[in-house]
Design brief:
The structure holds 2 protein chains of 2 kinds. By secondary structure, chain A is of the alpha+beta class. Helix content of chain A is 52%, strand content 13%. In chain A, the strands form 3 sheets. In chain A, strands 6-7-8-9-10 form a 5-stranded mixed sheet, covered by helices on one side. In chain A, strands 1-3-2 form a 3-stranded mixed sheet. Chain A is globular and about 110 Å long. The radius of gyration of chain B is 30 Å and the shape is flat. Classes of the chains: A alpha+beta, B alpha/beta.
Chain lengths: 499, 353
């Protein structure tokens, strides 16, 4: 089956693209491919890249996608890849109106990929890069065997989230190592015993002094931490310092590169989907829809944005926030005057007819990630209108229940889940723990424990790479603990003292 | 996927869940969706943000993990069912267990023929017209005759062009095998012990079926007396009473003598017990029965001893004393728990007979 657009679809595509240009969307060229459900499941299992290294996880993903499609539980309408050109996959069996909607949606995504600064560092030729990775891994498999390579990929994937999310955006001054030992003043010296001049060489023999001096320097050297500053990019640290075969290092590098590539998609899930939904709805309702397609469009659109009780749909929150921002900036509902106004009725009627909305949302889509987006634009009115709440686990009742409807609690919870992509903060602080070359990580505990069974398995994987005992400092049920794995046994030790 | 199944096989085997999910040719393996472990947050303390009606304190109907997953933070745990054919499974089992193939034994001259519609004839009933071939023939004839016109490609088959599907006989040598499972159901065998036997028999069955066409299974349960039962009963009875093992062996011999000629049948006998026989006299009788009557006729006699808190386990010792290292048709293993099932199968089927 040809995956090209049929002439009818191509005509629709051209039309949609013209609309997208009219709205001044700025996107990469988009290559559409039409796939049947089986093909689209295959591509989706590979995360959208038809050429990726072989790994059982993709097979599992595929089984799951095709099963849940077969049972009617899920359906992938569309997929789009952050690449220049962007690749977008359409489901062959979609109705014409659906294809139209999906194309508008895709142009929205592509615009977002191209303009949002968090995507700035991503490789826009990732399609090619992924295919390169595939070739490299296949060569390794030929050389070292499927089992060995796949097992190591398992290990690497287990550590893939230990990267420094913000590293692409800021400079960490890695190379400006301060080395005090060069400055003589900092060097420790041996205390000489008091003595008369003629007795000095007997009381303070030179051999002994030198020996003591050396011991002091050695001790100092050992005390020095390595790495000197906590390293958030644990993967990089391992690549640089762990004893590995070359091919293993190569795999870690690939996994790390792919992890960094996918980071912005996690960082901007709400915005990205919100933006694309905003544009498909705008383009469809204002331009592209024919009267006869209206019902189908409304059905599909509401399906995408449906929010189930107790769940948060990123499409829904995203599009509503963008609309809210547009409305506020159109009416001038921002700034000191508006905030200082105590009269709710007046606030509600506030309208200065500024018409800045469209301009504002284009700016927002450029400079924000989900975290800053929610932080800046989530308002109390918005929470109330959209019936947001926080939930928590009630240990007494053994279920989840609504915890609060208070604005600040909601915002805090939401920001919490978005901070560091919802991943724990973990860094390497000492690669010579107990002076035995053991690896010591610290988890900055912020109220939520690590999942214990996973932590144990991950430590074992870390050990496979580091090849010496590994430890992570964290909290378990409020107590400071060190999880420790030495290659044979896993232990949960109480943290006794500063190391 | 295959690799993964292989890795997790040991787990599947010790997990009784599998049995009963067996379809005709396919078996569904419930694979827990295997997550790659990460340093990640435990979910319970975490909570999150949702949207919808309700007052503070209202329980949430659905597990909100689902919704959270959409927001891209938590992995969900889902059972993933993988369909795999019994043959593949047995093959993986073979790889994993390092089982050498059991060679077909018996009368290779017994030939079973079966018909398959895989050939063509020029005559036949209209219902069996092979349209594609008929069309081809007609096209060929028209091309040769020069009546085919590219601008007006109409093909009209005449009587001689017609081709009909027809059968062919395929001859296949057939090997027969019978597996006789014997289980001690005396008072000392608890549910857990029977569960172990059940799981182990299932896997042995799976493996043997992949090796032999027309595998027959017979089930014998015994306490102080033995009787033959169907599969359902074999797996579900709970009886009580004493234990006279020889009764089961006698019955097994009776079945073999009457129905299964060892020249034509591969005969496998499996006996599971907690090893607590009624008297040492009976044990002697059992051993004599085995060496004089049963062993000459069977391919393999396997004895699996399940640990139970009441059993003395004496039978295994007596058996080993008599046969160990002397008779390679006798294999015994001690099954201490579910996790040992795998090793036990390895003992039983690790040697090709």
């Amino acid at each position: 089956m040809s995956t090209q657009l049929s002439p009818e679809l191509e005509a629709i595509r051209q039309q949609v693209e013209i609309y997208a240009q009219e709205y001044e969307l700025d996107y990469f060229p988009v290559i559409f491919e039409v796939l049947d459900w089986n093909q689209i499941n295959m591509v989706a299992a590979y995360g959208g890249f038809p050429n990726r290294y072989p790994h059982w996880r993709f097979g599992m993903e595929y089984e799951q996608l095709s099963k849940s499609y077969a049972y009617g539980l899920s359906k992938i309408y569309e997929m789009v890849i952050n690449n220049d050109p962007s690749y977008a996959y359409l489901l062959h069996s979609n109705a014409e109106v659906d294809q139209k909607l999906v194309m508008a949606h895709v142009y929205g995504h592509s615009d977002f990929f191209k303009n949002n600064i968090y995507f700035g560092h991503t490789n826009r030729k990732m399609m090619d890069e992924m295919a390169n990775h595939k070739t490299r891994v296949k060569k390794m498999i030929d050389k070292f065997g499927m089992e060995a390579v796949e097992d190591f990929i398992d290990v690497a994937l287990s550590l893939e989230n230990l990267i420094d999310t913000h590293a692409p955006g800021i400079r960490r001054h890695r190379d400006e190592r301060e080395d005090y030992s060069v400055n003589g003043a900092e060097l420790p010296t041996v205390q000489r015993l008091k003595s008369k001049d003629y007795m000095d060489k007997f009381i303070n023999p030179k051999d002994f002094l030198d020996q003591q001096q050396k011991r002091l320097e050695d001790e100092r050297q050992q005390k020095k931490n390595f790495p000197e500053n906590p390293e958030r990019d644990v993967l990089l640290f391992l690549i640089d310092h762990a004893p590995m075969e070359r091919w293993q290092r190569d795999i870690l590098e690939m996994i790390r590169e792919e992890a960094y590539y996918f980071v912005p998609q996690m960082q901007t899930k709400i915005m990205n989907e919100g933006w694309a939904s905003y544009w498909h709805s705008t383009i469809m309702t204002q331009r592209a829809l024919k009267a006869s397609e209206f019902i189908d469009y409304a059905d599909h659109h509401s399906g995408t944005l449906a929010s189930h009780p107790g769940r948060l749909n990123p499409y829904k929150i995203g599009i509503e926030l963008f609309r809210d921002i547009e409305d506020r900036w159109n009416k001038g509902k921002f700034g000191k005057d508006y905030d200082d106004c105590d009269d709710m009725v007046e606030q509600k009627r506030w309208n200065k007819n500024l018409g800045l909305g469209r301009k504002k949302i284009f700016e927002v889509r450029k400079v924000h990630s989900d975290l800053t987006f929610i932080d800046t634009y989530l308002t109390e009115e918005f929470c109330r209108e959209h019936k947001l709440f926080t939930f928590g686990y009630n240990n007494a009742k053994q279920n989840y229940e609504i915890a609060s409807r208070e604005f600040r609690a909601i915002k805090a919870k939401l920001l919490d889940s978005l901070t560091n992509r919802g991943q724990p903060f973990i860094s390497v602080t000492n690669a010579n723990y107990q002076n035995r070359g053991e690896l010591y990580l610290i988890h900055q505990h912020q109220g939520v424990d690590l999942r214990p069974d996973y932590a144990q398995e991950t430590l074992k994987n870390l050990h496979l790479v580091w090849k010496r005992p590994v430890a992570i400092e964290t909290k378990v049920d409020g107590g400071d603990k060190i999880l420790y794995y030495d290659g044979k046994t896993y232990q949960e030790l109480a943290k006794e003292r500063e190391v | 996927m295959r690799g993964r199944i292989k890795k997790e096989l040991r787990k599947f085997i010790s997990n009784g869940e599998l049995i009963g999910k067996q379809g005709k040719d396919l078996i569904s393996i419930p694979l827990p969706q295997i997550d790659i472990p990460h340093f990640t947050f435990g979910s319970r303390q975490k909570g999150g943000v949702g949207q919808g009606q309700g007052d503070v304190g209202d329980p949430l109907g659905a597990d909100p993990d689902e919704g959270e997953r959409k927001a891209g933070s938590l992995p969900g745990e889902h059972l993933l069912e993988v369909d795999i054919s019994l043959e593949d499974l047995a093959e993986i089992l073979g790889e994993e267990l390092e089982l050498p193939r059991i060679e077909p034994k018996g009368q290779a001259t017994i030939v079973h023929s079966r018909t398959k519609y895989s050939s063509l004839r020029r005559t036949g009933p209209d219902s069996l017209v092979h349209r594609k071939r008929t069309y081809k023939e007609a096209l060929k004839r028209q091309l040769l005759a020069g009546t085919y016109k590219a601008e007006r490609p109409i093909i009209i088959p005449i009587r001689e062009d017609r081709r009909y599907r027809s059968w062919k006989e395929e001859k296949k040598p057939e090997f027969n095998a019978v597996v006789i499972y014997m289980m001690d159901v005396s008072g000392s065998m608890g549910q857990e012990q029977k569960e172990i036997v059940r799981i182990e028999s299932f896997w042995i069955d799976t493996w043997l079926r992949s090796q032999y066409d027309g595998l027959e299974t017979r089930y014998i349960i015994h306490d102080a007396v033995a009787r033959e039962v169907d599969q359902e009963t074999f797996y579900h009875t709970r009886e009580s009473g004493g234990t006279i093992i020889s009764s089961a062996y006698k019955l097994a011999m009776k079945i073999i003598d009457e129905e299964y000629d060892p020249n034509e049948w591969n005969i496998y006998a499996f006996h599971f017990s907690d090893g607590d026989n009624w008297s040492s006299n009976d044990t002697q009788e059992c051993l004599n029965l085995l060496s004089n009557e049963m062993l000459p006729e069977v391919n393999l006699f396997c004895y699996g001893q399940v640990e139970s808190e009441y059993g003395s386990g004496q039978f295994l010792r007596d058996l080993n004393e008599r046969f160990e290292d002397k008779e390679e048709k006798v294999l015994s293993s001690r099954i201490e728990g579910k996790e040992k099932i795998f090793d036990s199968i390895k003992v039983f089927l690790g040697k090709g007979k």
